[in-house]
Amino acid sequence: MIINRLAIIGLGSIGKRHLRLIAEIRPDIEIIVMRSGHGSVCKEEQLATKIVHSVDEVVNEGVQAAIVSSPATLHLEQSLELAKRGVHLLIEKPISHTSDRVNELLKILDENDLTAMVGYVLRYDHGAIKFKKWLDNKIKGKILHVRIECGSYLPDWRPDQDYRKTVSALPELGGGVLLELSHELDYLHWFFGNPVDVQAQIRNSG
To answer: Is 5-119 a domain of CATH 3.40.50.720?
Structure first.
């Protein structure tokens, strides 16, 4: 299916990036942007065909697919609304800040024969693809143990803002490890399969 009308839900830092890249790659596509009614106008908005402020308005515009790039706590509810109305989805990671109702979304996607993907784009990194091939083809031997260490440093990649007021630091917007380190968790799952057991520690060094 060729997508001619696409929605971008949320116009934060990643939503702006999606908008710029889609407008560059597919200048023929009509892009409907759903953004909150507050906040300053950004230069990327001029790339949109139309700006709306609700999922109902998005669907009424006849979009075939949507990129959900709003704060993580809104991902699931917005995705459910869109899927119920036949819209294909690219959902920015994480799919939600909680596992509640994720199975409901999967069921709706299946019933409506919809395509959906969570935006773990680092799977397309050349190094990651090569390592995955090594693992699958057992080129480098048998993996006996894996240890991964990662952290998030503040201020983060929004240097022009007070990090305490950004999504990274606000639990109500889905900030925290599921947002900032979920690529690393996805790598573990993709490379090595489903976990047998999970233990975790978290600490603040500040």
So the answer is: yes
